[in-house]
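Quick one: structure tokens for this chain, please?
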Amino acid sequence: MATINKELSSIPIGLTTTESPFIEEAKRAGQLYIQQPYPLYSDENQDAWRKLFARMRPRWEKYANQHFMGGISQLCLDPEHIPHLEDVNKFLEPLTRFKAKAVSGYVPAYMFFDCLRNREFPTTITIRRSDKLDYLPEPDIFHDIAGHVPMHTDPAFADTLVRFGECAQTAASLVASIKDEDEKIHHLTSIIKAMARFFWFTIEFGLMKEKEDLKVYGSGLLSSYGEIAHCVESPLVQRYPIQLEWVINQYFEIDHYQPLLFWVDSFDHLFSLVDELEKWMKAGKLENVSPGEPAISEADLKSFLAA
């Protein structure tokens, strides 16, 4: 421990999103999976967590689904301090065998889904600036730990994530059998696009019926002070019961509040939809989905081809 702290002392303090020397060094060294260098969090970083947690708590109590609120309690998250991932995992693993796994940045699509299959959640360790709480150019530890991970305490939701990871494995196997390279890339691009859209409209921006009310379970909503209220109450948002054919053909944009959202009845319902997604994949129904966002990067394609 003394050696680690000595090494960290030579790195400028602060794990601020897009401003962290530690993360830049890890990326230059090609290190995707890393350890959380907790001593590097600055007072300003801790202040950002404190402010984010304090203002989100009443909105969670009003808009979040019951499974999320149970997860917040079970993880014993400290409102005053950024969590140690090892402490999060101490509470999380006995519940669903999931664990948070620190990463230095973007995880290519197949690798991300394969982590889910192995009950590991790639977790960003940086945090947004305390004076820009609403501006999030990329995921941060508040989005990942306070937005995603409380849902991972629910067995049905956790099993759904694992099932989604298995779908990625199926996709890699299917495209591997295609001989023509152009056809392979076309089919793979369409399949990844369909999977990304499904993930976006469920895991990231999903709503759930609880009795007669709509509640939030998507982490993108659960970590956004403004959008968690907007998604439930605004007349500008279209909300529909989820239909697979709509979701996989619906493009989305990430730089504004979502105008279209879908709700599920339960996590058992969501699990059944992932089963259906895989059946459609095997039947070739995901090979020509509508064009548009999200763009599929070369890194995402290579991750599936390498699998």
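The chain is about 55% helix and 10% strand.
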